[in-house]
Amino acid sequence: MGPRDAVTDGISLSEVAIDDGFWSPRRERNRDVTIEYQYEQLEESGSLENFRRVAAGESGDFQGMWFQDTDAYKWIEAASYVLAQRDDPELEAKVDGVISLIADAQQPDGYLNTYFSLVEPENRWTNLHMMHELYCAGHLIEAAVAHYRATEKETLLEVAVDFADLVDDVFGDEVEGVPGHEEIELALLKLYRVTDETRYLELAKYFIDLRGKDDRLAWEIDNPETLGGGEYEDGSIIPAARDVFTHEDGTYDGRYAQAHEPLRDQETVEGHSVRAMYLFAAATDLAIETGEDELIESLERLWTNMTTKRMYVTGGLGPEEAHEGFTTDYDLRNDAYAETCAAIGSVYWNQRLFELSGEAKYADLIERTLYNGFLAGVSLDGTEFFYENPLESDGDHHRKGWFTCACCPPNAARLLASLGEYVYSQRDSAIYVNQYLGSSVTTAVDGATVELSQDSSLPWSGEVTVDVDADGASVPLRLRIPEWAESSTVTVNGESVETPSEGYLEIERVWDDDRIELTFEQTVTRLEAHPDVAADAGRVALKRGPLVYCLEAIDNDRPLHQYEDPSPTSTTHRPDLLEGVTVIEGEASVPDRAGWDGRLYRPADETARERTEFTAVPYYAWDNREPGAMRVWIRS
Amino acid sequence: MGPRDAVTDGISLSEVAIDDGFWSPRRERNRDVTIEYQYEQLEESGSLENFRRVAAGESGDFQGMWFQDTDAYKWIEAASYVLAQRDDPELEAKVDGVISLIADAQQPDGYLNTYFSLVEPENRWTNLHMMHELYCAGHLIEAAVAHYRATEKETLLEVAVDFADLVDDVFGDEVEGVPGHEEIELALLKLYRVTDETRYLELAKYFIDLRGKDDRLAWEIDNPETLGGGEYEDGSIIPAARDVFTHEDGTYDGRYAQAHEPLRDQETVEGHSVRAMYLFAAATDLAIETGEDELIESLERLWTNMTTKRMYVTGGLGPEEAHEGFTTDYDLRNDAYAETCAAIGSVYWNQRLFELSGEAKYADLIERTLYNGFLAGVSLDGTEFFYENPLESDGDHHRKGWFTCACCPPNAARLLASLGEYVYSQRDSAIYVNQYLGSSVTTAVDGATVELSQDSSLPWSGEVTVDVDADGASVPLRLRIPEWAESSTVTVNGESVETPSEGYLEIERVWDDDRIELTFEQTVTRLEAHPDVAADAGRVALKRGPLVYCLEAIDNDRPLHQYEDPSPTSTTHRPDLLEGVTVIEGEASVPDRAGWDGRLYRPADETARERTEFTAVPYYAWDNREPGAMRVWIRS
């Protein structure tokens, strides 16, 4: 198989069934609550009304953010992932209804954007960096591909194809430029793969290659009066590129949208972190298609920069709120921005890097991100979301039901609904088990039908059983040894197998009702951060298996900053707590409160400390009880 | 002597001559550079032009901030302090020139405010909380009192009296309300003391007593369209009370201006820290006059709250930038706002508390503030100023030559010029030596002429000599034992005197060419902050004598966050460094950089540390060399 085959990989979402103690309840709530709620929001927010009014030939009175069309597209995409895995005629009918509205709103030449059609039809393609027409197009295409794959219906795919053809006609010809928010690139590569039309591959390559090379951004900054956007009907302002791309000293470059230099020259991950993840995901797909060494090297370099200098221990990305993104090496301040969508984007990118390389480290990072930086973004009951995921809070940061810029909730919904895409892969005629969660898959490998059935006790303990049957065919099976496993033991039908300390354990044999049993040792580890991370100097974080832990005020008597030298003594699974979590308990040192006598400062040699108990809970579960302080990094 | 006599205290600025190794060069630069530069700024900024144009009956085209008149008043005040201590005909002529412009701009009824006279004369006294007419009046009065005391000329005093009389006629009658920025209260008390007119005492009491009781603020918030202010001629906006006094949740109260409840009910120091210091200073003066127990108790309570829960180790005040002020108990984040003017205001308040009580703790705090929180605000060469005084910097915080809101530079100038007011006091027929710095004073106590001459080696070492002569009169002398002195030895004419560990050493004898020698032991102390100060948990600050120290990047090889457990080993005076400072040198623990192998996180049990040297410099001297990080609180 060539690289392209590797990524399309033969394992479709519909071939994977998830039945997992940890993830299934979350996925059910995602399906029954979140996706249902989002559907209601489409009407509430005016998103569907925008489509209806365009179809009716009306103008003005656009509702919502100017890229609001994506709410409908992302909802269709999430719903389609649900439909790929189970029959749901009611949901399918709703999807068909929304698609019908979208199709009706499409212009005769294929153009589709309700903001421009209603408000300023004459200004199409003028404000590439801020007005997000291509970003909306990308989400339309992703929704169309997901819907087509799930249902084989071409209703939305035809809409997407018509629009993509228009974009292909216009760009590189009438208009030269790249979008200010990447998204269409990865969508075009998906479209290419379902249609086999190389023009979409070429168009994606055009956008990826041009970024950082053209002078369109400078022109848009210098000519805001000729562009679409500006003031909104309700008086609010759509930001100008000048506001977003200009640094404090008055200079500007494309850093915010990774357009400060050509991708292949970039040494560090920069700018808006979601934009960066989407670009790198697309570029990795492009590299899978082209095999271009220079591009692959640049992506590996960027990944190394990110994971060794610019990533939270939770897998969260981007400390800075002002531009929602990356700053400098080792700036990992604990009042992190770490947008939920950036964690999701990281999962997308890492999945493609895995498909490109077959390396386990990418699946390791997906696991870390899923259980921590991503999952914290969703409340236990599935109804509220974090936009930002700090690693420390005074108790005033809480999830919300929805946002004006509602990117995170639907993004979380589509990731949970498509979780099955990350469990197994087929690559080079081998089956990879990348994530451990209760599930089964039936797929064809070189003509043989392979069935895998997995039971998993993650994340609370490390026992996994994989039953394999291939009717006597010989297929290599590659099982990821998680980076966090202190030690691993693996048996096949009870007989021990030698196991590497990391990477993949490959087992190749004639499979015929065989059972693989894996045990990954989970110990509580005190992690420290690199010495150049100022925010974590003199601090440790507790981790157990794939889970990062935190202290919450509700479980601990003292203000959290007073805990020092946390020494774990035991772990206890508490089914009653936070829908069932394993807590870490231990002792820490805290200051003796006596002897201050109304003083605010005193000689440090008077310091006395005492021991006290602490309880840590998984980071993903924080802020699901009464509001209070939270801290991941505890003084050591 | 009654309390009122205590504060006027018989020692005038002109009786004190300062000749000190540490302070005199700073005072000379203040006189020759800062005050001269400020005079030029009065013309540059349009401040004087505003007065000229009002005098000429013109309108419109007001220049500068709407309270810009205070620049001229504060300059006159600072210049008058200089004139009180030396003849300077050139400076005196400049002062007379500015006073003449001011007098010409006064309206027939006594009103004086160039913004309102030029821009909206019909809106006098409409916008009390934002438009600062009474704040400007207060600085006019302070300047007039200082000028009168220094020169005995009544030119400006007459202007101030006419304006004060108008204010007295209008307020409590036509208009009920208090100013949004306190200042006139303390100024009126000064005016009362030079004129003996009780109407000014009563008017100050009116403003102090009404604060927090009236509903004028609510009315101004609800009726912004009827008020003065609003949009400026250059398009900028004068903030509305609604913007400044409203909390995030939409409710409002007078907290920003200490008007949330009556002063006598206040339990905690709140709001804008400069405003708070000016109010409390005025209220303390009022208490000196009235002896009112309830007011004294409330001031002591507020002082205790501030000094035991809301004050930086430097004496700096107010962590929050948004409202330039106080927040909650123990919120002492190291990216402190700690406005220079707030430190200056604290000196004003504490001086009055001393005058009220005769307690040494107030003089101790003045010393701490002068050497640290205040002095850091002025560059070594006297040309640049901090508005904010953080205790930790990444290297991007620097002094500037001037500010749009130029309150701090002239405030620093008037404090340095009037430093002589804080060295000696006369109270209850005793002479107090409150600050140790080279100086002499000749003053009358109960008919006797007392001469003191002081030599001091502070802040670098603790040797002080005080020569006393009273021609054989017996006068109690109270010498402050600094709070920082680990131990003290005092001799009179070579004979030891028993010395308390803190407070005042009182020596009463017939003085006739006697010599007192004091030695205050200076040791390097590692201070810790109260356990509830989250920002300083697990950290220590180095202090020696009155000086707080800091690490600057330029003196230390490692990023400052890497230093742990700083152990001082020696102090060295380096005359070449930063105009001569004593540095603290020692060893600290820093992480071994090896063994990270491209990892960002690793198990903490792999931690290795090594010892390295560090050098700390006085906090006041930071940011006077090449830009770099700075840190007061070092990990312990």
Automatic annotation (TrEMBL), chains A, B:
Q: Which keywords does this Swiss-Prot/TrEMBL entry list?
A: Plasmid
| Organism domain of life | Archaea
Q: Where is the Non-reducing end beta-L-arabinofuranosidase-like GH127 catalytic domain?
A: 15-421
Segments forming domain Non-reducing end beta-L-arabinofuranosidase-like GH127 C-terminal? 524-635
Coiled-coil intervals: none
Q: Which residues form the Non-reducing end beta-L-arabinofuranosidase-like GH127 middle domain?
A: 431-520
Q: What is this protein called?
A: Glycoside hydrolase family 127 protein
Q: Which organism is it from?
A: Haloterrigena turkmenica (strain ATCC 51198 / DSM 5511 / JCM 9101 / NCIMB 13204 / VKM B-1734 / 4k) (Halococcus turkmenicus)
